[in-house]
From TrEMBL:
It comes from Kaistella antarctica. This is Porin. It comes from the Bacteria. Keywords: Signal. Residues 1-22 form the signal peptide. The keyword Signal applies.
Length: 439
Protein backbone atom coordinates (compact mmCIF):
# COMPACT_ATOMS: atom_id res chain seq x y z
CA UNK A 1 0.00 0.00 0.00
CA UNK A 2 2.78 2.35 0.90
CA UNK A 3 4.62 1.50 -2.29
CA UNK A 4 1.50 2.18 -4.32
CA UNK A 5 0.97 5.54 -2.63
CA UNK A 6 4.56 6.58 -3.21
CA UNK A 7 4.37 5.50 -6.85
CA UNK A 8 1.15 7.45 -7.39
CA UNK A 9 2.78 10.52 -5.80
CA UNK A 10 5.78 10.33 -8.11
CA UNK A 11 3.60 9.89 -11.18
CA UNK A 12 1.39 12.81 -10.13
CA UNK A 13 4.39 15.05 -9.53
CA UNK A 14 5.85 14.23 -12.92
CA UNK A 15 2.50 14.82 -14.59
CA UNK A 16 1.93 18.20 -13.01
CA UNK A 17 5.57 19.27 -13.57
CA UNK A 18 5.36 18.44 -17.25
CA UNK A 19 2.03 20.23 -17.43
CA UNK A 20 3.50 23.39 -15.83
CA UNK A 21 6.58 23.29 -18.08
CA UNK A 22 4.36 22.85 -21.10
CA UNK A 23 2.34 25.84 -20.03
CA UNK A 24 5.47 28.03 -19.48
CA UNK A 25 7.33 27.00 -22.63
CA UNK A 26 6.70 29.74 -25.24
CA UNK A 27 5.58 28.86 -28.68
CA UNK A 28 7.32 30.10 -31.83
CA UNK A 29 4.60 32.73 -32.13
CA UNK A 30 5.26 33.94 -28.57
CA UNK A 31 8.99 34.16 -29.24
CA UNK A 32 8.37 36.14 -32.41
CA UNK A 33 6.17 38.62 -30.55
CA UNK A 34 8.79 39.07 -27.84
CA UNK A 35 11.54 39.72 -30.42
CA UNK A 36 9.35 42.26 -32.20
CA UNK A 37 8.62 44.04 -28.90
CA UNK A 38 12.32 44.19 -28.02
CA UNK A 39 13.19 45.54 -31.49
CA UNK A 40 10.46 48.17 -31.24
CA UNK A 41 11.75 49.25 -27.84
CA UNK A 42 15.31 49.37 -29.16
CA UNK A 43 14.36 51.49 -32.18
CA UNK A 44 12.04 53.77 -30.26
CA UNK A 45 13.43 57.34 -30.19
CA UNK A 46 14.76 58.34 -26.82
CA UNK A 47 12.64 60.92 -25.09
CA UNK A 48 15.77 62.53 -23.65
CA UNK A 49 19.29 62.31 -25.05
CA UNK A 50 22.58 64.16 -24.59
CA UNK A 51 26.04 63.98 -26.17
CA UNK A 52 29.34 65.45 -25.06
CA UNK A 53 31.79 67.02 -27.53
CA UNK A 54 34.83 69.27 -27.59
CA UNK A 55 38.58 69.21 -27.99
CA UNK A 56 41.93 69.70 -26.33
CA UNK A 57 43.71 72.43 -28.28
CA UNK A 58 47.28 73.66 -27.78
CA UNK A 59 49.03 76.37 -29.79
CA UNK A 60 52.57 77.62 -29.95
CA UNK A 61 53.07 80.98 -31.66
CA UNK A 62 55.98 83.27 -32.42
CA UNK A 63 55.54 86.95 -33.41
CA UNK A 64 58.18 89.22 -34.93
CA UNK A 65 56.48 92.44 -33.73
CA UNK A 66 54.25 93.77 -30.97
CA UNK A 67 50.56 93.70 -31.94
CA UNK A 68 47.18 94.67 -30.59
CA UNK A 69 46.23 91.38 -29.00
CA UNK A 70 43.93 89.51 -26.66
CA UNK A 71 44.79 86.93 -23.96
CA UNK A 72 48.55 86.89 -23.57
CA UNK A 73 49.40 87.38 -27.28
CA UNK A 74 47.12 84.46 -28.23
CA UNK A 75 44.74 86.36 -30.52
CA UNK A 76 46.57 88.91 -32.68
CA UNK A 77 44.63 91.74 -34.36
CA UNK A 78 47.07 94.08 -36.13
CA UNK A 79 50.71 95.23 -35.66
CA UNK A 80 51.26 98.34 -33.56
CA UNK A 81 52.51 101.62 -35.01
CA UNK A 82 56.17 102.59 -34.88
CA UNK A 83 57.24 103.82 -31.41
CA UNK A 84 60.71 105.40 -31.35
CA UNK A 85 62.90 105.69 -28.26
CA UNK A 86 65.49 108.40 -27.57
CA UNK A 87 67.96 106.62 -29.86
CA UNK A 88 65.52 106.35 -32.75
CA UNK A 89 64.97 102.62 -32.20
CA UNK A 90 61.48 101.18 -32.71
CA UNK A 91 60.32 99.80 -29.35
CA UNK A 92 57.47 97.86 -30.97
CA UNK A 93 59.86 95.97 -33.24
CA UNK A 94 60.36 93.46 -30.41
CA UNK A 95 59.01 89.95 -30.96
CA UNK A 96 57.53 87.41 -28.57
CA UNK A 97 56.11 83.90 -28.25
CA UNK A 98 53.78 81.81 -26.10
CA UNK A 99 52.35 78.34 -25.46
CA UNK A 100 48.65 78.22 -24.56
CA UNK A 101 45.82 75.69 -24.29
CA UNK A 102 43.08 78.11 -23.21
CA UNK A 103 40.98 77.51 -26.34
CA UNK A 104 40.32 73.91 -25.30
CA UNK A 105 36.56 73.45 -25.41
CA UNK A 106 33.72 71.36 -24.01
CA UNK A 107 30.05 71.31 -24.96
CA UNK A 108 26.82 69.36 -24.54
CA UNK A 109 24.11 68.88 -27.16
CA UNK A 110 20.79 67.61 -25.89
CA UNK A 111 17.25 66.95 -27.02
CA UNK A 112 13.95 66.24 -25.32
CA UNK A 113 10.27 65.60 -26.00
CA UNK A 114 8.52 67.54 -28.76
CA UNK A 115 7.17 70.97 -27.84
CA UNK A 116 4.07 72.29 -29.65
CA UNK A 117 4.78 69.89 -32.49
CA UNK A 118 8.41 70.97 -32.83
CA UNK A 119 11.62 69.04 -32.24
CA UNK A 120 13.28 70.50 -29.13
CA UNK A 121 17.08 70.67 -28.94
CA UNK A 122 19.66 72.60 -26.93
CA UNK A 123 23.36 73.36 -26.69
CA UNK A 124 25.71 74.60 -23.96
CA UNK A 125 29.37 75.25 -24.80
CA UNK A 126 32.34 76.80 -22.98
CA UNK A 127 36.08 77.26 -23.33
CA UNK A 128 38.83 78.60 -21.05
CA UNK A 129 39.65 81.84 -22.86
CA UNK A 130 38.28 84.02 -20.05
CA UNK A 131 36.59 87.41 -20.40
CA UNK A 132 39.20 89.90 -19.18
CA UNK A 133 42.84 90.72 -19.82
CA UNK A 134 45.81 90.86 -17.50
CA UNK A 135 45.75 93.98 -15.32
CA UNK A 136 49.21 95.45 -15.85
CA UNK A 137 49.03 97.47 -12.62
CA UNK A 138 48.58 94.44 -10.37
CA UNK A 139 49.49 90.79 -10.06
CA UNK A 140 47.38 88.06 -11.66
CA UNK A 141 46.20 87.24 -15.16
CA UNK A 142 42.66 88.58 -15.30
CA UNK A 143 40.29 85.75 -16.13
CA UNK A 144 42.55 84.11 -18.73
CA UNK A 145 42.34 80.35 -18.26
CA UNK A 146 38.94 80.48 -16.57
CA UNK A 147 35.79 79.05 -18.13
CA UNK A 148 33.88 81.33 -20.50
CA UNK A 149 30.37 80.82 -21.85
CA UNK A 150 30.27 80.61 -25.65
CA UNK A 151 26.89 79.16 -26.53
CA UNK A 152 23.72 78.51 -24.54
CA UNK A 153 20.70 77.98 -26.79
CA UNK A 154 17.39 76.19 -27.08
CA UNK A 155 15.81 75.56 -30.49
CA UNK A 156 12.34 74.49 -31.59
CA UNK A 157 12.28 73.09 -35.12
CA UNK A 158 9.16 72.57 -37.23
CA UNK A 159 9.23 71.24 -40.83
CA UNK A 160 9.87 74.72 -42.31
CA UNK A 161 10.49 76.99 -39.30
CA UNK A 162 13.12 77.07 -36.56
CA UNK A 163 13.06 79.29 -33.47
CA UNK A 164 16.30 79.75 -31.48
CA UNK A 165 16.78 81.76 -28.32
CA UNK A 166 19.79 82.21 -26.03
CA UNK A 167 23.42 83.14 -26.68
CA UNK A 168 25.10 82.11 -29.92
CA UNK A 169 27.06 83.51 -32.86
CA UNK A 170 26.42 86.99 -34.17
CA UNK A 171 24.17 86.37 -37.20
CA UNK A 172 26.77 87.98 -39.48
CA UNK A 173 29.20 85.19 -38.50
CA UNK A 174 28.26 82.47 -40.98
CA UNK A 175 29.01 79.03 -39.54
CA UNK A 176 29.27 77.50 -43.02
CA UNK A 177 31.44 80.31 -44.40
CA UNK A 178 34.26 81.47 -42.13
CA UNK A 179 38.06 81.37 -42.59
CA UNK A 180 39.62 77.95 -42.11
CA UNK A 181 42.86 79.38 -40.71
CA UNK A 182 44.70 77.51 -37.96
CA UNK A 183 45.11 80.70 -35.91
CA UNK A 184 42.40 81.22 -33.29
CA UNK A 185 41.81 84.72 -34.71
CA UNK A 186 39.44 83.03 -37.23
CA UNK A 187 40.03 85.93 -39.62
CA UNK A 188 39.23 88.57 -36.96
CA UNK A 189 39.25 92.23 -38.11
CA UNK A 190 38.28 90.94 -41.58
CA UNK A 191 35.41 88.66 -40.56
CA UNK A 192 32.80 89.33 -37.83
CA UNK A 193 33.33 87.39 -34.61
CA UNK A 194 31.56 86.92 -31.29
CA UNK A 195 28.34 85.85 -29.59
CA UNK A 196 25.24 87.74 -28.49
CA UNK A 197 22.02 87.11 -26.61
CA UNK A 198 19.32 86.81 -29.26
CA UNK A 199 16.10 85.42 -30.61
CA UNK A 200 16.30 84.03 -34.15
CA UNK A 201 13.64 82.82 -36.57
CA UNK A 202 14.68 80.86 -39.67
CA UNK A 203 11.99 80.24 -42.30
CA UNK A 204 12.50 77.95 -45.30
CA UNK A 205 11.00 79.64 -48.34
CA UNK A 206 12.07 76.75 -50.59
CA UNK A 207 14.19 73.66 -49.88
CA UNK A 208 17.29 75.72 -50.80
CA UNK A 209 16.32 79.28 -49.76
CA UNK A 210 16.06 80.39 -46.10
CA UNK A 211 15.08 83.75 -44.62
CA UNK A 212 16.54 84.49 -41.17
CA UNK A 213 15.42 87.32 -38.87
CA UNK A 214 17.30 88.10 -35.65
CA UNK A 215 17.00 90.56 -32.77
CA UNK A 216 20.07 90.63 -30.54
CA UNK A 217 21.94 92.50 -27.81
CA UNK A 218 25.74 92.69 -27.56
CA UNK A 219 27.32 90.94 -24.58
CA UNK A 220 30.96 89.84 -24.48
CA UNK A 221 31.96 91.94 -27.47
CA UNK A 222 30.43 95.40 -27.71
CA UNK A 223 30.89 98.94 -28.94
CA UNK A 224 33.53 101.29 -27.55
CA UNK A 225 32.80 103.33 -24.42
CA UNK A 226 32.03 107.04 -24.72
CA UNK A 227 33.04 109.55 -22.03
CA UNK A 228 30.93 108.78 -18.95
CA UNK A 229 29.98 105.29 -20.16
CA UNK A 230 30.66 101.94 -18.55
CA UNK A 231 31.31 98.60 -20.22
CA UNK A 232 28.45 97.74 -22.59
CA UNK A 233 26.23 100.52 -21.22
CA UNK A 234 25.49 101.66 -24.78
CA UNK A 235 23.66 98.36 -25.32
CA UNK A 236 21.92 98.36 -21.93
CA UNK A 237 20.70 101.95 -22.39
CA UNK A 238 19.17 101.25 -25.79
CA UNK A 239 15.46 100.47 -25.71
CA UNK A 240 15.63 98.42 -28.92
CA UNK A 241 17.85 95.50 -29.97
CA UNK A 242 19.91 95.29 -33.13
CA UNK A 243 17.81 94.00 -36.04
CA UNK A 244 19.26 91.59 -38.59
CA UNK A 245 17.86 90.09 -41.80
CA UNK A 246 19.50 87.52 -44.06
CA UNK A 247 18.71 85.41 -47.13
CA UNK A 248 20.72 82.24 -47.70
CA UNK A 249 20.71 79.88 -50.69
CA UNK A 250 22.26 76.46 -50.04
CA UNK A 251 22.77 73.35 -52.14
CA UNK A 252 25.11 70.37 -51.83
CA UNK A 253 28.06 72.32 -53.27
CA UNK A 254 27.12 76.02 -53.02
CA UNK A 255 26.27 78.26 -50.07
CA UNK A 256 25.65 81.94 -50.73
CA UNK A 257 23.77 84.75 -49.08
CA UNK A 258 23.42 88.41 -48.22
CA UNK A 259 22.20 90.34 -45.21
CA UNK A 260 21.80 93.68 -43.48
CA UNK A 261 21.59 95.08 -39.95
CA UNK A 262 20.35 98.18 -38.20
CA UNK A 263 21.72 99.13 -34.79
CA UNK A 264 20.78 102.00 -32.47
CA UNK A 265 22.87 102.39 -29.31
CA UNK A 266 22.67 104.94 -26.51
CA UNK A 267 26.21 105.50 -25.19
CA UNK A 268 25.21 107.54 -22.09
CA UNK A 269 22.09 108.75 -20.28
CA UNK A 270 23.75 111.95 -19.04
CA UNK A 271 25.93 114.43 -20.93
CA UNK A 272 27.02 117.92 -19.94
CA UNK A 273 25.06 117.61 -16.71
CA UNK A 274 21.80 117.10 -18.63
CA UNK A 275 19.70 114.10 -19.54
CA UNK A 276 20.99 112.71 -22.84
CA UNK A 277 18.84 111.12 -25.53
CA UNK A 278 21.68 110.98 -28.07
CA UNK A 279 22.10 107.71 -29.95
CA UNK A 280 24.59 106.33 -32.45
CA UNK A 281 22.66 104.78 -35.33
CA UNK A 282 24.33 102.61 -37.96
CA UNK A 283 23.62 100.10 -40.68
CA UNK A 284 25.69 97.28 -42.11
CA UNK A 285 25.57 95.10 -45.25
CA UNK A 286 27.37 91.86 -46.09
CA UNK A 287 27.48 89.00 -48.57
CA UNK A 288 29.23 85.64 -48.83
CA UNK A 289 29.84 82.65 -51.12
CA UNK A 290 31.16 79.11 -50.69
CA UNK A 291 31.82 76.37 -53.20
CA UNK A 292 32.82 72.93 -51.91
CA UNK A 293 33.24 69.50 -53.44
CA UNK A 294 35.35 66.46 -52.58
CA UNK A 295 38.54 68.21 -53.76
CA UNK A 296 38.39 71.94 -52.94
CA UNK A 297 36.70 74.40 -50.58
CA UNK A 298 36.52 78.05 -51.65
CA UNK A 299 35.01 80.80 -49.46
CA UNK A 300 34.55 84.57 -49.95
CA UNK A 301 33.05 87.23 -47.66
CA UNK A 302 32.57 91.01 -47.86
CA UNK A 303 31.16 93.51 -45.36
CA UNK A 304 30.71 97.29 -45.12
CA UNK A 305 29.00 99.50 -42.58
CA UNK A 306 29.19 101.81 -39.59
CA UNK A 307 30.29 101.13 -36.01
CA UNK A 308 31.53 97.55 -36.52
CA UNK A 309 33.47 97.64 -33.25
CA UNK A 310 31.22 95.01 -31.61
CA UNK A 311 32.11 92.54 -34.39
CA UNK A 312 35.80 92.82 -33.36
CA UNK A 313 36.56 94.85 -36.47
CA UNK A 314 38.07 98.30 -37.06
CA UNK A 315 36.01 101.41 -36.39
CA UNK A 316 33.44 102.58 -33.89
CA UNK A 317 31.93 106.05 -33.57
CA UNK A 318 32.87 109.69 -33.06
CA UNK A 319 31.59 112.25 -30.55
CA UNK A 320 30.52 115.82 -31.54
CA UNK A 321 29.86 118.73 -29.20
CA UNK A 322 26.37 120.21 -29.54
CA UNK A 323 25.48 123.88 -28.76
CA UNK A 324 24.02 122.85 -25.37
CA UNK A 325 27.33 121.21 -24.44
CA UNK A 326 26.10 117.66 -24.87
CA UNK A 327 27.84 115.09 -27.04
CA UNK A 328 26.18 113.59 -30.11
CA UNK A 329 27.49 110.63 -32.09
CA UNK A 330 28.09 109.38 -35.63
CA UNK A 331 29.43 105.96 -36.72
CA UNK A 332 32.73 105.56 -38.54
CA UNK A 333 32.64 103.46 -41.70
CA UNK A 334 34.64 100.28 -42.21
CA UNK A 335 34.85 97.86 -45.14
CA UNK A 336 36.49 94.45 -45.33
CA UNK A 337 36.70 91.32 -47.46
CA UNK A 338 38.51 87.98 -47.38
CA UNK A 339 39.02 84.81 -49.43
CA UNK A 340 40.01 81.34 -48.23
CA UNK A 341 40.89 78.38 -50.47
CA UNK A 342 41.68 74.93 -49.08
CA UNK A 343 41.98 71.31 -50.07
CA UNK A 344 39.18 68.95 -49.02
CA UNK A 345 41.57 66.02 -48.62
CA UNK A 346 40.65 64.13 -45.40
CA UNK A 347 44.30 63.44 -44.48
CA UNK A 348 46.52 66.31 -45.68
CA UNK A 349 44.79 69.60 -46.53
CA UNK A 350 46.78 72.75 -47.42
CA UNK A 351 45.01 76.12 -47.44
CA UNK A 352 45.62 79.83 -47.98
CA UNK A 353 43.88 82.97 -46.69
CA UNK A 354 43.92 86.66 -47.64
CA UNK A 355 42.01 89.47 -45.94
CA UNK A 356 41.85 93.26 -46.27
CA UNK A 357 40.07 95.96 -44.26
CA UNK A 358 39.86 99.74 -44.74
CA UNK A 359 39.01 102.61 -42.38
CA UNK A 360 36.84 105.15 -44.27
CA UNK A 361 36.41 107.57 -41.36
CA UNK A 362 33.49 109.83 -40.40
CA UNK A 363 32.23 113.40 -40.87
CA UNK A 364 34.68 116.13 -39.90
CA UNK A 365 34.24 118.20 -36.76
CA UNK A 366 34.34 115.45 -34.13
CA UNK A 367 35.76 116.06 -30.67
CA UNK A 368 36.34 112.48 -29.50
CA UNK A 369 36.98 109.20 -31.28
CA UNK A 370 35.71 105.90 -29.83
CA UNK A 371 37.12 103.43 -32.30
CA UNK A 372 39.35 100.37 -32.63
CA UNK A 373 42.52 101.21 -34.56
CA UNK A 374 43.58 104.54 -33.05
CA UNK A 375 46.69 105.33 -31.00
CA UNK A 376 47.09 108.89 -29.75
CA UNK A 377 47.17 111.16 -32.80
CA UNK A 378 47.65 108.19 -35.15
CA UNK A 379 45.04 106.01 -36.82
CA UNK A 380 44.96 102.91 -38.98
CA UNK A 381 44.37 103.43 -42.68
CA UNK A 382 44.20 99.77 -43.71
CA UNK A 383 45.23 96.26 -42.65
CA UNK A 384 45.86 93.17 -44.76
CA UNK A 385 46.79 89.61 -43.86
CA UNK A 386 48.03 86.61 -45.85
CA UNK A 387 48.57 83.13 -44.44
CA UNK A 388 49.31 79.58 -45.56
CA UNK A 389 48.64 76.39 -43.58
CA UNK A 390 48.61 72.60 -43.83
CA UNK A 391 46.21 70.45 -41.81
CA UNK A 392 47.52 66.94 -41.05
CA UNK A 393 44.53 64.86 -39.91
CA UNK A 394 44.30 61.34 -38.51
CA UNK A 395 40.96 60.28 -37.06
CA UNK A 396 40.22 62.94 -34.41
CA UNK A 397 43.83 64.18 -34.19
CA UNK A 398 44.95 67.29 -36.09
CA UNK A 399 48.32 69.06 -36.41
CA UNK A 400 48.34 72.38 -38.32
CA UNK A 401 51.47 74.50 -38.90
CA UNK A 402 50.74 77.98 -40.28
CA UNK A 403 52.74 81.00 -41.48
CA UNK A 404 51.01 84.38 -41.37
CA UNK A 405 51.95 87.97 -42.22
CA UNK A 406 49.79 90.91 -41.11
CA UNK A 407 50.56 94.40 -42.46
CA UNK A 408 49.14 97.71 -41.20
CA UNK A 409 49.41 101.26 -42.53
CA UNK A 410 49.34 104.01 -39.88
CA UNK A 411 49.08 107.77 -40.39
CA UNK A 412 48.24 111.04 -38.67
CA UNK A 413 44.53 111.47 -37.96
CA UNK A 414 42.72 113.69 -40.46
CA UNK A 415 39.61 115.82 -39.69
CA UNK A 416 37.57 112.87 -41.07
CA UNK A 417 39.31 110.32 -38.79
CA UNK A 418 41.20 108.76 -41.71
CA UNK A 419 44.99 108.47 -42.02
CA UNK A 420 46.91 111.29 -43.68
CA UNK A 421 50.56 112.38 -43.74
CA UNK A 422 53.52 110.61 -42.13
CA UNK A 423 52.25 107.25 -43.36
CA UNK A 424 54.07 104.23 -41.96
CA UNK A 425 53.83 100.57 -42.98
CA UNK A 426 54.54 97.99 -40.31
CA UNK A 427 54.17 94.22 -40.34
CA UNK A 428 54.11 91.22 -38.04
CA UNK A 429 55.22 87.74 -39.06
CA UNK A 430 53.58 84.97 -37.03
CA UNK A 431 54.68 81.34 -37.13
CA UNK A 432 52.51 78.89 -35.22
CA UNK A 433 51.60 75.24 -34.74
CA UNK A 434 48.18 74.12 -33.58
CA UNK A 435 47.56 70.64 -32.14
CA UNK A 436 43.98 69.42 -31.55
CA UNK A 437 42.47 66.19 -30.27
CA UNK A 438 38.70 66.21 -30.63
CA UNK A 439 36.03 64.09 -29.00
Amino acid sequence: MKKTTVLLGIVSSLFFSNWIIAQETPTNEDLLKRIEALEAEKNKPKEWDASLYGWVRTEYNFDSRQSAYSREFHLNLYPLDEKLDANGEDINAAGGSNFLAITSRVGIRFKGPDVWGAKATGNIEADFFGNTELNKTSAGSGSTGLMRLRHATATLTWPKTALTFGQTWYPSFITDVFPGVANFNTGIVFNPFGWAGQIKVAQKLTPELTLTLVAYKDREFQTANAVGASVNSATFNSSIPTFHGQLQYKTKTVTTGLGAEYQSLKPVIESGGLVSDQTVNSDMYFGYFKYANDKIITKLYGITGGNLHHLVMLGGFAGYTEPNGQESYKPTKTSAFWIDVASANPKVAPGVFFGYTKNSGVDAGYKNLYIRGVSGARVLDAVWRASARVDFKQNKFNVSPELEYTAAKWGDISPEATAQNNMKDVGNFRAMVRVMYSF
